[in-house]
Design brief:
The longest helix is centred in the middle third of the chain and has 39 residues. Helices cover 83% and strands 0% of the residues. The chain has one domain. By secondary structure, the chain is mostly helical. The protein binds protoporphyrin IX containing FE. The site of protoporphyrin IX containing FE has 22 residues, from helix 1, helix 2, helix 3 and helix 4.
Length: 153
């Protein structure tokens, strides 16, 4: 199980790190010209699919395997510990948010991030960018709550 545990840790490192990197890029691109902003958001969209979404999928998959291995060991004291339950519930909520809301929003946002010759982004772009920003903050908040719960509760 140590390889699964390693993959679990690698998964949430990619996920939380990717979210923070994406937020920094989005924040840094705020006052840039439309062409640069468009490029930055296309990159964020790719980051979301390749790093964040993949990381979240790995965390959920390995989380299920780890939980099943606890189960086969006869549940154990750990199952009664709040830190485990808070991690699992916050992790599942955050993971589902990333996979079912974040990923489609990010790919839509990336597809719309093309500046016109007049230096304007399509009107729909802002809708997806704002939704993406809310989903990112919520999911990274829940992921950090899961991590914090494990080490602090
Ligand atoms: C972003 C979300 C998550 C974070 C930050 C997180 C964090 C962690 C950490 C730090 C550990 C301990 C690693 C170690 O001992 O070296 C761990 C283990 C574990 N995680 Fe998660 N986790 C998350 C999501 C999940 C989910 C969704 C599940 C279940 C579906 C899950 C189930 C488990 C289990 C069963 C263990 C092993 C406990 C043990 O054997 O001591 N985790 N997780």
């Amino acid at each position: 199980m140590s390889f699964v545990l390693f993959t679990h840790v690698l998964g949430f490192t990619m996920w939380i790190g990717g979210e923070l990197a994406g937020m920094m890029v989005a924040y840094g691109a705020r006052d840039e010209p439309a062409q640069v902003r468009a490029g930055a958001f296309r990159l964020i969209s790719r980051l979301y699919t390749v790093v964040i979404g993949f990381g979240a999928l790995v965390v959920l998959g390995t989380g299920v395997l780890l939980t099943m291995s606890l189960d086969s060991g006869g549940l154990g004291d750990l199952m009664r510990e709040p830190r485990l339950w808070v991690m699992i519930l916050a992790g599942i909520a955050a993971g589902l948010l990333v996979l079912f809301v974040g990923l489609p929003t990010a790919s839509r946002m990336g597809a719309l991030a093309v500046a016109s010759k007049q230096g304007e982004l399509p009107s729909g772009f802002e809708v997806y960018r704002k939704r993406q920003s809310v989903v990112s903050k919520l999911s990274v908040g829940l992921a950090v709550t899961a991590l914090l719960a494990w080490y602090v509760l």
